[in-house]
Each structure stands twice: as structure tokens, then as C-alpha cells.
Design goal:
Elements: H1 13-34, E1 36-40, E2 43-44, E3 49-50, E4 53-57, E5 71-75, H2 84-88, H3 91-95, E6 101-105, H4 123-138, E7 148-153, H5 155-166, E8 173-177, H6 188-191, H7 193-203, H8 209-213, H9 216-221, H10 225-228, E9 233-239, H11 244-260, E10 264-269, H12 275-292
Parallel strand pairs: 5-6, 5-7, 7-8, 8-9, 9-10
Antiparallel strand pairs: 1-4, 2-3, 4-6
Length: about 300
């Protein structure tokens, strides 16, 4: 049988329409598999500034007009911004595997606290009182504790665990990668000269009430047994090659959680305080978050590997 070849002549109108249709369908398929990233330019009244946030929508979000989705709030680290997660990791591709919305807010260098020295730097209040309500208003979210999780890296990991401890009726799951849990203990020598003054404005001097109110160890120690039962499930990890100022507080927090019988999982894994490590671990955070936002019973586990 003679083999025939078929050519599309671009001067042929029918062929052009066919090619355009194929390209359009291909584009729709790729979009459906990867989801979509949107940026919201949100004006915060509490912070008196525009605080943009990125949103990763799950595949099929626009087509499923009545479906509601759980939300993972993903916080960036110190010296970072709301764009970091999308531009420096493959989180948009990883999130496409799950039926959830990922929100990445702007936290600047706030440590996600209400500042001790700057009246308008109320970033903790912003997240709880402005950001979450705005996301719930704009998107089809599950507007309850069981449809909401928070996670982050370094400064953001500290913020996420702190929010989980302080606001158990808001989040069902809180996670940290390389969490800077010792932040309230930092001294001028640890922060470095030029970094100390803005840090002092945020958390106040050593021993200040603002530091105590934002110390995850103090918060956890003060929890009653009844309060512990209401907490979200916690997950946190740190790289074994990370600095001691990160590794030691992570171990200490896990030991305290075990003592208080706070449901959690702690891991030490090969890696440094780097985007390579966070790109790897955000996949695990997404996996656990997706599972925990559908579960209500947890058990304490402590695993190092």
C-alpha cells in the first residue's frame, strides 16, 4: 500500500480553523491540569498598605461553579515576599494534584505579628481579620475550621505554628518547614547590626510583653489539657544541615509538644535552609494538608529520619 502524507496548507481556511481548534483544546487541557495563579491587590486597612496575595486555583475551578474548596495559607520567609513560593518553587504544579486553593500573602518582614513599635504593622490581625475574610468573599471556599490550613517556611513556619496554637478554631492543620521558632529569643548579635533596629521595633526589647505573647514555647506551655484537645494537627520539619539556631528550637518544640500531648509529627531530613529543601518539603505539606482537611481524629507521632 502506498504511504500517503497529509499536508496542511496555511493558505487553506479550513486547515487554519482546524489547527486553531486543536491549539485551543490543547491550551485548555494544559490549564486544567495545572490550575491557575491569580494575584489580588488587596488594600489593608489595618496595615494601611496594599498587601498583594497570590492564589493558586485547583484544576477545573472555573468550570465547577458550585464546588467549594479547602484553603491552605502558605507564608513566605524573612526578606521574602508573596511571590516567592510561585517563582522559586514548583508549588503550582504540586498543588494541581489536590482539590484545594493555595493562598500566598504578603508578610514583608513582619514575623506575622502585631508590631510592638509600629502602630500600623498589625500583620497578625491582618491575616485573621482581613485576609481570610477577603479570600472567603472572593473564592468558593469551605468557610470553616475543617477547610482551612496554614503553613510556611522559616519566618512563615514560625507564624504558621503560632497561628495554629493561638487560633485552634480557625485552622485544622498547621505546618512549618525550617521554622524559626527561636525568634523571640534572638539577640542583637544573632540578628546582625542593621537587622536589629527593625527587629526591635517588631518584637520589642528582650523580655517585653510582645515577645512573650508571640513566643511559641510560652504559648504551648500555658495551654490547659482542655485547650490542647482543641488544637489543630501540627507538622514541622528541619534540615539536618541547617543552622543550630533553627535545628535546636525545632527539636525543643517537638519535645514540648510531646510533653503536652499535642498531636504532631516532627521530621529531620537531609538539607539546608534553602529553596531546594523547601521545594522538596512543600510537596509533603500539601499532601498532609489535603488529608487533614478531611479528617478529625489525630494521634501523636514523632519521627526523625
Amino acid at each position: 500500500m502506498k504511504r500517503q502524507s497529509i499536508k496542511f496548507e496555511f493558505g487553506n481556511r479550513s486547515a487554519r480553523i482546524t489547527l486553531l481548534a486543536i491549539f485551543f483544546l490543547f491550551a485548555l487541557t494544559v490549564h486544567a491540569q495545572t490550575g491557575a495563579v491569580e494575584t489580588v491587590q488587596f488594600r489593608s486597612q489595618l496595615v494601611s498598605a496594599t498587601l498583594p496575595y497570590n492564589v493558586i486555583l485547583p484544576p477545573g475551578y472555573r468550570a465547577a461553579r458550585t464546588t467549594r474548596y479547602p484553603v491552605l495559607y502558605l507564608l513566605h520567609g524573612w526578606a521574602g515576599h508573596y511571590t516567592d513560593w510561585v517563582t522559586r518553587t514548583n508549588v503550582a504544579d504540586y498543588a494541581a494534584q489536590y482539590r484545594l486553593i493555595v493562598v500566598m500573602p504578603e508578610g514583608n518582614d513582619s514575623w506575622y505579628v502585631d508590631s510592638a513599635g509600629v502602630a500600623t504593622d498589625k500583620y497578625e490581625s491582618y491575616v485573621l481579620k482581613e485576609l481570610i475574610p477577603d479570600v472567603d468573599k472572593r473564592y468558593r471556599t469551605i468557610q470553616s475550621r475543617y477547610g482551612r490550613a496554614v503553613a510556611g517556611l522559616s519566618m512563615g513556619g514560625y507564624g504558621a505554628i503560632k497561628y495554629g496554637l493561638k487560633y485552634p478554631t480557625t485552622f485544622v492543620f498547621a505546618a512549618s518547614m525550617s521554622g524559626a521558632f527561636g525568634v523571640t529569643r534572638y539577640t542583637e548579635n544573632e540578628m546582625g547590626g542593621s537587622n536589629w533596629e527593625p527587629f526591635l521595633k517588631t518584637l520589642g526589647p528582650i523580655g517585653s510583653e510582645t515577645r512573650k505573647a508571640n513566643d511559641v514555647f510560652e504559648i504551648a506551655r500555658g495551654l490547659s489539657p482542655a485547650r490542647v484537645t482543641s488544637l489543630p494537627y501540627f507538622y514541622f520539619d528541619v534540615g539536618t544541615e541547617d543552622a543550630a539556631q533553627h535545628v535546636k528550637p525545632n527539636r525543643e518544640l517537638s519535645e514540648l509538644f510531646l510533653e503536652k500531648k499535642i498531636a504532631h509529627e516532627y521530621r529531620e531530613l537531609p538539607g539546608t535552609h534553602s529553596w531546594a529543601y523547601w521545594d522538596q518539603q512543600v510537596q509533603e505539606v500539601l499532601k498532609i494538608a489535603a488529608a487533614k482537611m478531611r479528617m478529625t481524629h489525630y494521634s501523636v507521632r514523632n519521627r526523625s529520619r
